[in-house]
Write a structure and sequence with these properties.
single chain, 743 residues, alpha/beta, TIM Barrel, UDP-N-acetylmuramoyl-L-alanine:D-glutamate ligase, 2 domains, nine-stranded mixed sheet, eight-stranded parallel β-barrel, 24 helices, 21 strands, elongated, kinase, Carboh/pur_kinase_PfkB_CS, Putative sugar kinase YdjH, Aldolase_TIM
Length: 743
Amino acid sequence: MLAKSLDEKLARIHHDPSCEEFILADAKDADMAFGIAAPGVSHETGQRRTLQQYRELIRQNTEQGLIDIMLMSVSTNEVLTINERLFDRSRVTPAIRANDTTEIWLARGGVYSAQPSRPFRTALLDHGQTGRADSLPAERQHGADLGLYSVTFNNDTEHDARTLAAYREFCLEAEQKGFRHFLEVFDPNCPVNPIEDVGSFVNDHIVRALAGVAQRGRPLFLKMVYHGPAAMEELVNYDSSIVVGILGGSSGTTFDAFHQLWEAKKYGARVALYGRMINNSEHQPTFIKHLRYLADGQLSDAAEAVRSYHNELRGLGIAPLRRLEDDLQATNRFFDYSSGLTTKTSAKTSVRGLPSSEAAEVGPEIVVAGHICLDIVPEFPDHFSVASANTLIEAGKLKQIGPATQVTGGCVANTGLTLHQLGVRTSLMGKIGDDSFGRELLSILHETDSELAQGMIVAPGEHTSYSIVIMPPGVDRSFLHFPAANDTFHAADIPLDRLADAKIFHFGYPPLMQRFWEDGGIEMGTLLRNVKSRGLMTSLDMAMPDPDASAGQIDWNVWLERVLPHVDCFMPSLDEILFMLGSDPVTEPMPAGSDGQFPTLDRDALSQTADRLLALGTGMVVFKLGDQGLYLKTSSDADRISRGFYQDKSGVEEWVGRELHAPCFEVKVGSTNGAGDRTIAGFLAALARNAGPEEALEKAVAVGGMSVESSGSESHELSFQSIDQRIHAGWQRQAGLPGFAGR
């Protein structure tokens, strides 16, 4: 059996902690977390890989010989290490995931990661070493003698004591059976009590936990979230015998992976373990090779490594997942399997090799908070008439309809997921119950991107909000809605420290959230004032309350007076704001036989309505006009406009004293459900990309148009590039409103 590079490198690191040795591990143990989704999607076929294909990648990456550790599940270790003897002819060390704590139980529809982690072990050390539970001492070298053990501290005595007790028992068994381990320390996945500085909290827990462990029971090295230079140096300088390693975390850009390794090594890390970043790359051996270049100092610049990686992909005839300029950007990622916490690091990341103006912010660009629900959308037959819709509910009658789809609804899902599709770093904040509807919502978010589910609050014993969306052919939508957990969501559920690097905070549907309307706007105004104090631009979307329910009876004029001074961009639909202001309609009467579309609108009445809202203190008003597009009017006070934008926004003067209308693009309507939310997403995404008012409106109605062309749960793949291509190809617009020139 060949000598293992891991053992040689650890010996040199302990002899000289300042040496340049660096240990790389490939994590192929995701079947103990994600289940069927673990092998990922093949870049060549676009289909999910099978377990056999996943194991073939393990063989290839091991035989390449550039990694030092291959981490696997016990079952894969049995096939490759014990049965095939793959590692006998390799300098790579096989390792097993020795425990599967509950925050990595990421089954579709599961809610475990939203609850404080609990220790658990599926794996038996004997199975990892020999494949049998009745192992003899002489047989223990047949399999893996190294494992990963995970702990998560959540700032609660009961939870954290249980975690340490389980780790103590593991260490005792491992020492008795000659089994080595490295210790993975996740960030708190669901802290029971607040934690101001997660990096310091984790560092202190590591030091105090290992202080009670003798050398024979200690981990070979640590694997933890990289919390930035200061936290890394603090831990490394405290005890040079502790070998500190980082976990790669979720998939981001290639620059994310390369820069993280380069910077962590610079400040003292000596190990990096990458799982999803390797598994989701275009070509795993080439990706690993460039990680090794950076680890060994053959490349000393992350941006240079990205360019080299793209050059090699081109030589292999492999199309990259992203354009080079996009792959050179730093993005927001959570760094472990399930943590929804952001950690206290520097506010911005310096992107080496790029002009400082192109350096991307760390953290989400836009935070979307507020209402979320599950939309249940029955399908109506084409022959279902308007007359039938008017008598849809008749006592004692049965009306036959078609199948129903279940899709995400509400501002948080519709606006947030569309922003994500558009490539905007987005964080979602909402509240659901621990019921079947809640599990369905989490499953949909996980299917889109597992990180998007991490900001959701799962409330034990509460119901998840749902809407029955009634959309017969030729009839405007109507809704049967249950607010549920949205009614208990309140300002304290929004952790302001997670907004640190965001540009825009968007809140949606307060009329459907009791805590935000029952006090006449005090809670809503206070939240937005606190958000603005952190330098963010605030945006607010409304919803039509039930006129016969309590929310429909409050004085919405008073509510608006309290809230709008703290709203930079107010984005209601026209009918919502007319109801709240108690205004006369600005439209002519709806003609007989209408299909629910808006008739011709009057510019003067629109302008007067917008002026009332601007006078209450908001910086700009955007009216959603259904099939007639968007109307924008902004304050003529340059100081109010300037104060309303996020830091570093250029071209602010373009927004002063503007009044514009953007007509819709010509589309074949498939479904209008959620179209307004998605239109808002287009507007906000353009704002985050520093667009001017004309461009922001154009992007908004384009995104809205592409969304209504979709039907059911299907949606177009959105990007500003695809939108621009379609517009330049001659995408036709509808006629503008009378009184507006051009757009």
